[in-house]
Design brief:
The protein has 153 residues and is an alpha+beta fold. It is 22% helix and 43% strand. The chain is built from three helices and eight strands. Helix 1 (2-16) crosses helix 2.
């Protein structure tokens, strides 16, 4: 009952803010509510406060004791939602599939797949030396086991 109430409040808050979307939601022992959100334009502290207030102000602490944590998906967290990929266009991703690993620049993200592009040095077809070749991989979301943004300093 409590979980359903919280889910409904969370859904209503996200409907009010279509630029935000849910990454993870759980209620652990002792009614510890954990909500992880992301946004098409990133997530500000004010966005987390909006979600937190939408839930907390509509629950009665006299009736049910709870704790509430609302946070954004971290920079090192794996990408979990297709909408996250579109926000990371032209950034370097590390993508694992069941059969392969790729590190490349995210050049496009459609509703079904992503395209990674990277450069590699290969031997010349004729003669000595190497030549730089651009490679490309189209990867369906369903084939992605894990994808992370590579942070460069």
């Amino acid at each position: 009952m409590f979980k359903t109430t919280v889910e409904n409040l969370l859904e209503a808050a996200l409907n009010d803010r279509p630029d935000l979307f849910l990454i993870d939601f759980s209620i652990e022992g002792g009614n510890q509510i954990k909500v992880v959100v992301d946004g098409d334009n990133g997530v500000l502290v004010e966005d987390c406060m909006f979600i937190s207030r939408a839930i907390e102000h509509n629950l009665d602490r006299e009736e049910q004791d709870f704790s509430l944590d609302v946070m954004s998906a971290g920079a090192t967290s794996p990408l979990a939602h297709n909408r996250q990929y579109k926000r990371h266009l032209n950034r370097t991703l590390k993508v694992k599939t069941a059969s392969d690993k790729f590190i490349g620049t995210l050049s496009s993200a459609s509703d079904e797949n992503i395209t990674l592009v990277w450069k590699v040095r290969e031997p010349k077809p004729i003669g000595k030396g190497k030549v730089t070749v651009t490679k490309e991989a189209n990867i369906a979301y369903k084939d992605i086991v894990e994808a992370k943004v590579m942070i460069k300093f």
